[in-house]
Structures are given as structure tokens and as C-alpha cells.
Amino acid sequence: MPPRRGREDRGASLAPRGRAPSSILLDLAFHQAYKASAHGTDRLDRSRRRALLKIVRTSAVLRRQLRLRSARCSAALEEPLSAELLARRFGPSAVPGSLGRVYRAQTRLLGLSEAAQRSLRRRSDVIGIGAEVRAFYGRAASMIREVDANLVTLEAAERFLKQRPRIDPNVATVVVAGFPNVGKSSLVARLSSAKPEVAAYPFTTLSIAVGHADLGFDRMQVMDTPGVLGRAGRTNPAEGEALVALEHAADAILFVLDPTEECGYTLAEQEQLLARWKDEYGGVPILEVETKADLTTSPSSRLRVSAVTGAGLKELKALIQGLLRAAVLSKPTPLAPEELTTEFELGG
Ligand SMILES: Nc1nc2c(ncn2[C@@H]2O[C@H](COP(=O)(O)OP(=O)(O)OP(=O)(O)O)[C@@H](O)[C@H]2O)c(=O)[nH]1
Ligand SMILES: [Mg+2]
């Protein structure tokens, strides 16, 4: 079988695509500065005003660009699922460290621009004014180049996040998980709006994906995950992503087993992983389901479904609905704004 290029390979490389981000930012800023024109009482006054404008614009454009390039990753660090996915993919301190250095560059740029403006006001010759602007450009450029590697990291992290779903924390989530090739994605496609890739080999799914489903009054998020082999101490990045989803996104887990063993793994191996997860994720309800019911007539005590014929899917949906209802109801609900006001008033 030829090696397949997963989404991981396509999307999350740290290598910059094309030009260095610092060079793009500096071109943008210097171009804006170059267009600056100013009126003044005489040549010196005009030259000083234009120089001030160049410095202010360069600094503003650079700081805005740094802010924009940090925004998505900053927000992601506030969400436990995304923060953990980033930590696993890039290392625990790569994204927070890059954000910190880019933030400090913004503060330093502001200081540099204010100092340059003060020096300019003291200059009384056109040549000196020109030298001041050039010195500012030089220092600003080296500050931006210093964070080039951090901007590359943030770009890669943003590309990585773009390929991951955004989870609505207010909507209940069932995470569909199990061994590779057992039929998880086929079930997710049957249960929700998601259209995952389905194929007859393990690790077709390499990253998490989410579909939505209407359960009458409730909505739910159905999360597809890569398969997990459950080898002690060894997880590949795709398996790691499934584990992060179980830890940080699951209100309930749908554990999918393939009793036919067509997937290439024995039922005993799959049941071992199930037993381990029951210990590890004790706080989250786990629903066990056997799929590929159209291929087997052997007896089983578990619910059997088929993604091919649709057998058992109605019952499965009802069970998931019941489980999610119970899981969500047992969560401590945040106080509604009017309750907060009442409490505050009573307390005061
Ligand atoms: N006959 C039959 N085949 C199924 C059923 N569900 C899935 N399959 C087949 O099983 C194979 C694996 O299905 P997937 O849905 O890709 O399995 P997966 O668990 O998502 O696999 P990974 O993403 O690789 O972990 C595919 O060839 C599917 O067509 C089913 O209910 N009946
Ligand atoms: Mg899959």
C-alpha cells in the first residue's frame, strides 16, 4: 500500500510557505509609511511632520499585524481542547512562548516609536530627520526579524487549528472512539451531518472532526476520532488526538466495537481497551455498541447496529440522547445573569 499523506503532513508543517513572515510584515509597514505625505509651514516643518507620520504608521501597522497573527492562537489557549491539541502537536511551551515573545515585541515597538518621535522633535535639520527615520526603520526591522521563528510557529499553529473543528461548549458532545477501522466514521456519518472519509484500512481518520445532529429538542455534537490501538506507552499523533478529545470534549463516549474482526483486530483486544477506558474516564458515561451487524449473526449482549443497512441506528440515537441528557443535567450549570444579579443584590 503506498504511503498516504495525512492531513497532519499537509497542514501542520512548521516550514514557512514562501516568504518569511517578518519580510511580509516589513514590506507592508514600509509601504504604508512611504505613502505618507504632510503639509507644513516650511521644508523643515514638512519633513519633520512626514517623518513623524512614517514612524507612527510603521509602528501601528507592525503592531496590528502582530496582534492579528496572535489572535487565533490566543483564543485557542483559552479552550482546553484546542490548548491541549496545540501542546501535543507543537510541544507544551511552543505556542504560549511564541505568543509571549510576539506580545513583548508589540510593547517594545511602541516604546521605540515613542522614543523616535521624541528625538525627531528635537531635530532641527532635514538630514538629521532622515537619519532618525532610517535608524527607527532599522531597529523596528530587527525587532520583527527577532520574532520571525515565533511568527512561523503561530502560522503553523493557526493552519493546524483551521483543520480542527470548533466545539460549542454549550452543546452536548458524544465522542465516537475505539480501535482503528472498526466503523467509527461510518457511524458518525449515519448519526450526524459530518461527511468523514471511510475506507477499509486503519488510520483513515487522522484528526478529530465534528458533525451535528438534531435530537428533537436537543442538538448534539458527534465527534469522530482516529482509532486508538491502546499500546502501553506508545501513541502516534493521531491516537493522541483521540485521547485529547476523550479527555476534554466528551460528555459521553460511544465506544465502537467490531465483533466481526474485519477491522484486523480481535474483539478481545478491543474489549481490553474498553476496560481500560472505563477506569481512566470513570466520570464520563460510556455507551458500548457493536457495528457491522449486517456481517454477523453471532449472539451478543450489546446493541448491534449496521452503518450499511441502518439497523439499530434509531435505538442507538435514543440511547445517546438519554445518556447526553443525563450527563448534561448532572453538570453544574452556571448561574443565569438574572440569578447573578439577585445573588449580588442579596449579598450587598
Ligand atoms: N459491512 C459493513 N461494513 C462497514 C460497516 N461500518 C463500516 N464498515 C466498513 O468498515 C471499514 C472501516 O470503516 P470506517 O468507518 O472508515 O472505520 P473507522 O473506525 O472510522 O476507521 P479509522 O478512521 O481508520 O479508524 C470500511 O470499509 C467501511 O465500509 C457496517 O456497518 N457494515
Ligand atoms: Mg475513521
Task: List its salient traits.
disordered C terminus, binds magnesium ion, 348 residues, Rossmann fold, disordered N terminus, 12 helices, 6-stranded mixed β-sheet, alpha/beta, binds guanosine-5'-triphosphate, Four Helix Bundle (Hemerythrin (Met), subunit A)
Name the bound molecules.
Answer: guanosine-5'-triphosphate, magnesium ion
Radius of gyration based on Cα positions: 28 Å
Query: What percent of the residues sit in helical stretches (DSSP H or I)?
Result: 55-70%
Task: Give the strand content.
Answer: 5-15%
Element-level helix/strand string: HHHHHHHEHEEHEHEEHH
Q: Kindly state the mean pLDDT as a whole number?
A: 89
Q: Would you give the CATH topology of the largest domain?
A: Rossmann fold
- The CATH superfamily label of the largest domain reads P-loop containing nucleotide triphosphate hydrolases
How would a textbook summarize the main sheet?
6 strands, mixed
- What's the CATH class of the largest domain, please? Alpha Beta
The assigned structural class equals alpha/beta
Q: What is the count of DSSP helices, taking H or I runs of 4+ residues?
A: 12
What is the topology, as strand order, of the major beta sheet? Answer: 2-3-1-4-5-6
Specify the CATH architecture of the largest domain: 3-Layer(aba) Sandwich
| Low-pLDDT residue intervals, each spanning 5 or more residues | 1-12, 339-348
Given the C-alpha coordinates, what overall shape results? elongated
Number of domains: 2
- Number-wise, the strands total 6
